[in-house]
Design goal:
alpha+beta, Metal Transport, Frataxin, Chain A
Length: 75
């Protein structure tokens, strides 16, 4: 297993979600809900100027059922 997860902005995570076929469903407060329309959902915190923490990124990867290295390749 190679690389560590980089610190990312929400817009970078959303680019990967779109590449994986996810679409925006709704927003509650500062959290956007995304789905692939079949069986996967994830929440992306939208805090302008802040990076998404590695713990939250790890949770998003689990929601997407994608490996860290595959996620990094999609960036």
């Amino acid at each position: 297993m190679g690389s560590k997860l980089p610190a990312l902005k929400a817009k970078d995570v959303i680019k990967v979600l779109r590449k994986k076929g996810f679409s925006f469903v709704r927003q509650k407060g500062s959290h956007q809900i995304w789905t692939n329309g079949v069986d996967k959902w994830t929440t992306v915190p939208m805090h302008p100027g802040e990076d998404i923490g590695r713990g939250i990124l790890t949770a998003i990867l689990k929601d997407l059922d994608i490996k860290r290295d595959d996620f990094i390749k999609l960036l």
